[in-house]
From TrEMBL:
It catalyses: guanosine(37) in tRNA + S-adenosyl-L-methionine = N(1)-methylguanosine(37) in tRNA + S-adenosyl-L-homocysteine + H(+). Keywords: Cytoplasm, Methyltransferase, S-adenosyl-L-methionine, Transferase, tRNA processing. This is tRNA (guanine-N(1)-)-methyltransferase. Specifically methylates guanosine-37 in various tRNAs. Gene3D superfamilies: 3.40.1280.10, tRNA(m1g37)methyltransferase, domain 2. Homodimer. It is an enzyme of class 2 (transferase). Belongs to the RNA methyltransferase TrmD family. Residues 1-227 form the tRNA methyltransferase TRMD/TRM10-type domain. HAMAP family: TrmD (MF_00605). S-adenosyl-L-methionine binds at G112, L136, G137, D138, Y139, V140, L141. Its EC number is 2.1.1.228. It is found in: Cytoplasm.
Length: 235
């Protein structure tokens, strides 16, 4: 998968060289490119923002550098590329959406700052690629960088080969519509707290059933909104 990121803070994305995504990048499973939006400005101050038409607080990102960035990054054969515009006004990012996006050939993340990007940019790019405004959650960040990083990590780890043991992707939170069960490792007793006996029993059916009960109980307690309807009214 190829991923391009356009930002005025390329240094934010240094972490892409670390850990699983760093290895995926070195092994060419993920072809990641970070671009500085200011490279597509032409004035001495490398200006990317201006005051909003209609008034109001804050600044809006001007369309010209974004237009040039997309001219440079999207070719005639990129109509299938997905341009992600991180925004608190977008559709919510979820595990199913991460799974969908993990199948794409090419993603371009356009990180807005300030009060966002001039709305004509999304309109214009929609004629050349698929555009999705996506929100990380119901809160406001200072810009799209942290949201893009979170999305790239969630999507990237679902690309085949990125996570060494694909089985570890199956049981985790949000995959079965439930939060994940608690996990334990050695030592058996730590500061007086013991690992639940069933996990040491070697009885795989009992372990699977205990884990499922724990997952259901945790989901009911913490995130009842996620509980599948068939479990919603069981005790
Ligand atoms: N930019 C600012 N806030 C955001 C959010 N919640 N999700 C995605 N991008 C954002």
């Amino acid at each position: 998968m190829r991923i391009d990121i356009v930002t005025i803070f390329p240094e934010f994305f240094g972490v892409l060289d670390v850990s699983l995504l760093g290895r995926a990048r070195r092994e060419s499973l993920l072809d990641l490119h970070v671009h500085d939006l200011r490279d597509w400005t032409h004035d001495r101050h490398r200006t990317v923002d201006d005051t909003p038409y209609g008034g109001g607080a804050g600044m809006v990102m001007r369309p010209e550098p974004w237009g040039e960035a997309f001219d440079a990054l999207l070719g005639d054969d990129d109509a299938d590329a997905v341009v992600v515009l991180p925004s608190p006004a977008g559709v919510r990012f979820t595990q199913p959406l991460a799974r969908e996006l993990a199948h794409e050939r090419r993603l371009v993340f356009a990180c807005g700052r300030y009060e966002g990007i001039d709305a004509r940019v999304a309109q214009h790019v929609a004629g050349r690629a698929r555009v999705m405004e996506i929100s990380l959650g119901d809160y406001v960040l200072n810009g799209g960088e942290v949201a893009s990083m979170a999305m790239i990590e969630a999507i990237g780890r679902l690309v085949p080969g990125v996570v060494g043991n694909p089985e570890s992707l199956v049981e985790e939170s949000h995959e079965a519509g439930l939060l994940e069960h608690p996990s334990y490792t050695k030592p058996q007793v730590w500061r007086g707290l013991e690992v639940p006996e069933v996990l040491r029993s070697g009885n795989h059916a009992a372990i699977a059933s205990w884990r499922r009960e724990q997952a259901v109980e945790r989901t009911r307690r913490v995130r009842p909104d996620l509980l599948p309807p068939d479990l919603a009214d069981t005790v």
